[in-house]
Structures are given as C-alpha cells and as structure tokens.
C-alpha cells in the first residue's frame, strides 16, 4: 500500500461509539499527531454515524468523502514523517514512537477488503521521533503520549536520590567495575583507588533505603573550589556514573543528574564539572567543554635543546605536599579553572595512583628554593618503555626548562616521554626541531552552571566595564535555570536578577554555551560565529567586554 499525500497512510473502517471509546483508551498510551484537535464539545452532539463529535475530534479523525473508497488490503500501516521535521538530535539518540493501531486483530481481518461506508471516520496516525533520554517530551496536544518500551511515568519519574548507605562499598565497586572495567570479569577486584573525600549517591525507587537495597544507577560527587575570573568558586565534581545493563535505557541517568544538580543548588554549589566518557552524552543535559589540552609525545633527546641543568633534584613523599602546593600556587596562581588543592587532594590524588604509585621529585635552585616538581610513572618492557608525567608544576619558564632537563636524563631508560600542557604552552618554540614533537589537541572536562545568579555573582569582572544586558538561557535539564536574567556589571562585580521563565533577552544561549562564555573558554564573538549565541552586534561586543576570552585549563582528574 502506498502512502497518500504527505507521506501518511490512513486507515478507514466503520466504527461504533463503543469501539471509539475502547480506541481512546488504547491511543492514550501512544503519541499521535492529529489533523484536527477540538475539545470542549458536548458529548450529546452526535454525527451522522452515531458518534459524538467530542469523541471523534479527540481522536483526531476526519470524515471521508461521500463516495465509496476502494478496498485496502493493508489498512494498518504507518510511515514516519519527513526526517527534516524531526527534533534535532543525534541519530543514535532518536527512536520512533509506537503507532496506534485501533481495533483488535480479529476486527482488522474482518474489516480488510471491505468498502468504507459513506460518512465513516478514519484515524490519522503519524510516527514521531524524539530523543531517547528525554523523560518528558513536549506535549503538543491533549492526548497522553508514551512508548511501550519506555515508560518514565512508571519507572524513572518516581525515583529518589540517596547517599549510599554504609556497607555498600562492594556494591559501589561492582557497579563501577562493570561500567569501566568489564574485561575484569564479574569477580570483584580489591580496589586500591585513592580517593579524596567525596559523596556516593544512588537512585532508588524507595524513599528510604538500606545496604541491602540496590540502586538503579550510581555516581560520586567531589566538593572543591576552583579559580574562575580571579575568584574562588565552589564546584561539584561529578564522577563514576554507572548503570547496570538491566537498568539502562530507562532515563535513570537523566533523573539522577537532575536531582544531583538540584542538590548542588541547595548546598550553594553553583557549578558542576565532570570528565565525560563521551562529550555528546552529557552535552544533551547542558554540560559543555570547559578546556582543552595538548598531549605531547616525544623522544627524551628532543627536549634536550630546551633543557637546563643546575640546582638539585630530590625524591619526596606525601608529607612534602605543603612544599609542592606552594610551587603549584606560584605556577598557576589564579589560572582559570585551576583547583585550590586541599591536603587530602594532594595526598590521595596527586601523590598516589590507581595501580602504581608515581615517583615524585622536587627541584631546588642554587639558592635552595623549591621551584618545580613532577609525579610520573614508567610503563612498558625494556627497550620500549614510556615515561608518563602524571602531574607537574614549574614556577616559571626557567624552572620548566630544568624539569625538561630531568626528563631528558631518562633517555637511557625510556624511548618516549608523554606529558600534557595547556594550549598556550611555549614548548614548540623552546626546542630546536619542533617537527620531532607530536602534540595532540584533545578536549578536556565539561562544565555547566546549576545556579546562574550565584555563579555570575561569584566571579570578578574587568575594571572599567559598566554594562547591563538581559540574557535568555535555555536548559534541557533544569527548569529552574532556564529563563531570562538581567546582568548588571559595575566596579568589577555583578548583580543578577531573574526576570522570567522565558529564555528571551538581548542575547540567548544554551546553559552550556553561556557557561563557556562566563568562565572564558569561548568568547562572545566565537559563540556568535557558530550560532551558539543569538545576539546583535552591539550585544556581542558588550558580552565580549564583560566576559573576555582566556586560557582555561582544568587538569585535575576525579
């Protein structure tokens, strides 16, 4: 059977009032697009076939022409609308809705091939595509919507976020091991993972839980402060999001993220950051790239032309963290997105590793001042070993040259050195032959604001900038964030007022793009050029003055 005009196949069959009542129940659980939608008519108003006008209109039907129609062999088919009309989303995240099929199988067989009586009605059914992860697709008419295999109302919509109870360590690591190390097998390996203080959460169907209850998905959250625009901002680091396979494709992660972000707001934590397993996954929930980094791979001898010698290197342990922290502060200062490291962070994250603890060395100059340090591991077989620099700081360029000299001294042990730097690193210009370097630009962590006024008012602003602008922010995850905001900047500070729920204003952007703008990862002109910011030229220039672009570098793993 070929579709009629518009790519829609229509079914036509006689129906009674009782049949339509049963069809209304069936169709209430699926998404249908109706050609006519009128409510409020009296049920006592009957048409020529004995159906009430209200029932007919609610089902989205249209009356056939007066002349009989040709019999249809396959009268229960449906085709998808034009793909260009579907909501924008990655194809891998789109799925078609189940199309309503009124009547039971026996009735359809009896009706097949029959001529349609004059004045009969027919239901017009479309398929709809939508993003798999959206629990509440936008309602376009009065009919209830859903999918047979995806029913958030009975599953993910009635879930509760709890801290994992005491005695759930094995459960937590079982979830994490399956998500990130499935090749290890079902036997739980003893974990030697060094962790700074953090909180573990689980999503449960019950309001109260015990250690015997199993969550449908879990995550960890680290509380820390990071520098942004010369100001210290409270942030929540999201990590170890893991869902067992039996609970996937039910929207649980989205529910957990929404509830966790609300908890961040309640605890005065206006920013969330994470290291994604896949950027596109978290981008659909409002996170956006916060920084990029350069990964360098080279032979140790390549660095010799940039190296310096002198001073002394000494191996240190975890108790030297205060000395290393002083070097870190001298090196990074208030660099955008650098962390304000605590003692626990130094001891458990910087100076320890998951499997093999790193070697830690500190450099002192001729005056005895500590000015550089690094932590590294060596991996591989003899003749094919690689030195991985896990973390380092150099107070200035001279100290960085001495750090490079330390690496070149390993040329008899390793064939390759790997380290990461910010995107503005001068390493290319420091060596004699930059062609021997192999830098790779990679995306880093992601960021999003969960409380726009609190985040913006925590930042510092350029001197001499006096501006007021209204910004509309779209947010796919948090209705409490989406809306219109008035931003007023003067004397290096900002005041922010929420003006409404509609994401309209002098400039409009998604929460991810606006977060990038605010922390300096992308400038207003850049966002405007890629259509991630909708504003006129004057507003773009104003936002560029308020939020100048800068080099961001969040190097911490969590």
- Uncertain runs are 1-154
Query: What characteristic shape results from the CA principal axes?
Result: globular
Give the helix/strand class: alpha+beta
Structural domain count = 4
Distance between the termini: 57 Å
The proportion of residues forming helix, as a percent range, comes to: 10-25%
Any idea what the CATH architecture of the largest domain is? 3-Layer(aba) Sandwich
Largest sheet: 7 strands, mixed
The radius of gyration over CA amounts to 30 Å
Number of helices: 14
DSSP E strands, number: 23
If strands are numbered along the chain, what order do they take across the biggest sheet?
5-6-7-8-9-18-10
Domain Eis-like acetyltransferase: 338-448
Biased composition (Basic and acidic residues): 69-89
Pfam families: Acetyltransf_17, Acetyltransf_9, SCP2_2
Domain Enhanced intracellular survival protein: 452-554
